[in-house]
């Protein structure tokens, strides 16, 4: 919430190498202390650049809504990370609503294909591609008054390419009607 105290974030790389943080949107970060600047959205990115012994890790992103002091309805993913095997065919994403449940709210969701390869199997960059790994998905979740949870489905494509774990991003945006 706008006006709240700054808070600390942390991450540990399995390699033991240092993790750096950056912020975009309506927040700033100094070392590991996050400062909220305005209502809207904040995206925090954890980066581990690697060294001569370890490859760089895939960036980890966490996005969250920042409410005005008078607005107390918030939405967030029920988990910060989801995992699915390609053979499953779909993944169900759960969005939780907290705070003031007395009014209806809407929030948009969308998968993000930024950073993925255009050629499936050409280079396993660790980023999933909507061309061969998942279906681009977007929509709006409508929470009625008193509703606290909604789900949506993302199609997962089972391809014939042997590859390691891959990531893609799902974003929430445009929270409306938060009281």
Structural class, please? mainly beta
Radius of gyration: 18 Å
Low-confidence stretches: none
Look at the structure and give the mean pLDDT: 86
Number of helical runs? 0
Shape summary: flat
CATH superfamily of the largest domain: CalX-beta domain
| Percentage of residues assigned to helices | under 10%
Give the CATH class of the largest domain.
Answer: Mainly Beta
Total DSSP E strands: 12
Number of domains: 2
Q: Which architecture name of the largest domain does CATH use?
A: Sandwich
Description:
With 179 residues, this protein is mainly beta. The chain has two domains: 1-70; 72-179, CalX-beta domain (Immunoglobulin-like, Sandwich), CATH 2.60.40. The chain is built from no helices and twelve strands. The strands form four sheets. Strands 1-4-3 form a three-stranded antiparallel sheet, with no helix packed on it. Strands 2-5-6 form a three-stranded antiparallel sheet, with no helix packed on it. Strand 3 and strand 4 form a beta hairpin. The mean pLDDT is 86.
Topology:
Blueprint: E1 7-8, E2 20-25, E3 27-30, E4 33-36, E5 40-47, E6 60-66, E7 74-77, E8 90-98, E9 105-112, E10 138-143, E11 149-155, E12 169-176
Antiparallel strand pairs: 1-4, 2-5, 3-4, 5-6, 7-8, 8-11, 9-10, 9-12
Please outline what is shown here.
By secondary structure, the chain is mainly beta. It is built from no helices and 12 strands.
Key attributes of the depicted protein:
179 residues, mainly beta, Immunoglobulin-like, three-stranded antiparallel β-sheet, 12 strands
